[in-house]
Write a structure and sequence with these properties.
Elements (H helix, E strand, L loop, with lengths): L1 E5 L2 E5 L7 H8 L18 E4 L2 E4 L12 E3 L11 H8 L9 H14 L5 H8 L9 H12 L3
Parallel strand pairs: 1-5
Antiparallel strand pairs: 1-2, 3-4, 3-5
Helix pairs in contact: 2-5
This protein binds FE2/S2 (inorganic) cluster (2 copies).
The site of one FE2/S2 (inorganic) cluster (FES) has 12 residues, from loops.
């Protein structure tokens, strides 16, 4: 039996241990904020936090998070007021929105590791998160704004 804490709640799974965390979150727990993009760790749409660090849930097996703590976009802040979420609203970052949960989770992880990142560090930290709408300038600007609130 796999046990994992998701957004502060103890969850368990006794099915296929190789099930991707993405599908455990979406299909078993109904946490559909985390998106499926490529399924191959190439786009970042499925980004969640595992033990406080950004991870691609499409290539993470449920067995890999046994005993760990997972946070999804739904659990990042109880009222949606994490500094990254506030900055995203302030700068109206999303266009279609599909990539945005992943972008926000990646940005939150980046700022947890690097409080005041340089422009290069922001670009490097966010480089694996693809936005088909091309919101990159607003994403970078919002990470800069969020850095002042973390
Ligand atoms: S769906 Fe996981 S990185 Fe694209
Ligand atoms: S806002 Fe549409 S893919 Fe990023």
């Amino acid at each position: 039996m796999i046990k994992v804490k998701v957004n502060g709640e103890e969850r368990s799974w006794d099915g296929d241990p190789s099930l991707p965390l993405l599908w455990f979150l979406r299909d078993e727990l109904g946490l559909v904020g985390t998106k499926f993009g490529c399924g191959q760790a190439l786009c970042g749409a499925c980004t969640v936090h595992v033990a406080g660090t950004a991870a691609r849930s499409c290539i993470t097996a449920v067995s890999d998070v046994d005993g760990q703590e997972v946070v999804t976009i739904e659990g990042l802040h109880p009222q949606g007021d994490h500094p990254v979420q506030k900055a995203w609203r302030e700068l109206n970052v999303p266009q279609c929105g599909f990539c945005q949960a992943g972008q926000i989770m990646q940005a939150a992880s980046l700022l947890a590791e690097t409080k005041n990142p340089s422009d290069d560090e922001i670009r490097g930290g966010m480089a694996g998160n693809i936005c088909r709408c091309g919101c990159y300038q607003r994403i970078e600007a919002a990470v800069r704004v969020a850095a002042t609130g973390t």
